[in-house]
């Protein structure tokens, strides 16, 4: 039985970028079919207030719209609920003409060398953040799972659907990728990280960028705290069962 790929793209106010992203994904359809695969593209409009839904409609197989913004984790969960693929590829909506590069992430899964593949993006050429969120996320993942990651915040990742279902639901907000990596390691998924020449929009060092990174820092920190408390509960349960 040939593998089936579901490409899931959560989007919020991406009307200006998502048509280009979807078009460049569809330009790779021959590559996907050449690998012996069928595929579908699913976009989840997470309560956008622009015309993201209308902009995505001509290019997708399934289009889901939330009535309000629920967060990236909820959008990913909605996409998974409608996906029929045994391989899932999560992508951001603003990859534009580099979106097709992400398909390399499915190759380790097809070769059964990994259960999850995460994209490592090239270093930014512009002045963006100060690395605080990424550093905290990397250290937190290592401390809570033992896994050393170079791409703790990457939203571009492929995963086997059956292994993903073992993890339960997604975390909320900007901590979704951090939680996904921690949960994957704790459940024994084999993870690889690949250099992929993907670019997407980055926030700068202006006021808007600082507010965005502040919110991201808080939500990643909360995610790490939640996963730490979860591990602590497991330890306490194990201690009680041995008495």
UniProtKB/TrEMBL annotation:
It comes from the Bacteria. InterPro entries: Glyco_trans_2-like, Glycosyltransferase_2, Nucleotide-diphossugar_trans. Residues 6-123 form the Glycosyltransferase 2-like domain. PANTHER family: RFBJ PROTEIN, UNDECAPRENYL-PHOSPHATE 4-DEOXY-4-FORMAMIDO-L-ARABINOSE TRANSFERASE-RELATED. This is Glycosyltransferase. It comes from Paenibacillus phytorum.
